Amino acid sequence: MEKEFKSGFVSMVGRTNVGKSSIINSLVKEKVAAITNKPQTTRTAIRAIVNRDNSQIIFIDTPGIHKPKTKLGNTMIETAFGAINEVDVTLFVIDATSENIGKGDRIILDKIKEAKIKTILVINKIDLTTKEHIAELIDLYKDEYDFQAVIPVSVIKNKNLDIILDEIESNLKPGPAYYNIDEYTDQTLRQLVEETIREKALKLLDDEVPHGIYVETEKMKTRKTQNKEKIYDIDATIYCLRDSHKGIIIGKNGSMLKKIGTYAREDLEKMLDTKVNIKIWVKVKQDWQNNDNLVKKFKLQ
């Protein structure tokens, strides 16, 4: 007898830098979410789609939980907690090296308890600690909530990731495929361009600068080269908070901006499977993180 098809939405919640985006990209097997070693890389809820033989799982990668200092920060926190109440299953990701339930994890736990949502605890970065410590962490969290499952994983070692998908599928109800089976994200190409450029800037720039930037795709058109090859022409603008930041982003003789553009182009050519011609400008937009019209862009849709 053929299995009944299942589908559902799964939120990924956790503190900053626990590896939520890395897990999602590994599960989807595509680059969907920006990954850096800097906190607060994810700003909005990004949907990523995993199509299996008998199910379609739609992940919602949410911003990491942190103490907000701007309207943008408040919106990020609202997005993360809002996703808990809008899904079929929640994946609560914690860091295997943590010694106890910290303040951020405690806040998330309280929200999960309040929502009484089906939750799978995912302990990431198990390659960085001992089995004994992981066992202690499991006992600590099992006393707090009746999790559907507790899954220790390592994205770096590609360990136990398929178990996450199996466990999610077992907790979903029968339902339709919400997206075509060849889709892996609901982001537009313009959004993917913006996330890619921002990721490269986050990786390359000093700590002070990256979180004061956002990227807008101004133009994205296709044309044919003289050799009849398809090519994307992309114009984008990086907005930052101060003139001093603008100088850092551009770099001496444009060296930093060129590096950001080169790395972004390489990623986008793999993603789009075609040639890319990218031009990036840098402009100052002071205090944009408290601009209501701009912050709306980052709200959960």
How is the biggest beta sheet arranged?
6 strands, mixed
- Helix proportion range: 25-40%
Number of strands: 9
Helical region count? 9
Number of domains: 2
Shape type: globular
Rg over C-alpha atoms, rounded to the nearest angstrom? 20 Å
CATH topology of the largest domain: Rossmann fold
Order of helices and strands: EHEEHEHEHEHHEEHHEH
Overall pLDDT metric: 82
- Order of adjacent strands in the largest pleated sheet: 2-3-1-4-5-6
Structural class: alpha/beta
Q: Can you identify the CATH superfamily of the largest domain?
A: P-loop containing nucleotide triphosphate hydrolases
**Could you give the distance between the termini?**
38 Å
Q: What CATH architecture of the largest domain do you see? A: 3-Layer(aba) Sandwich
The low-pLDDT segments are: 35-43, 64-69
CATH class of the largest domain: Alpha Beta
Roughly what fraction of the amino acids lie in strands?
Answer: 15-25%
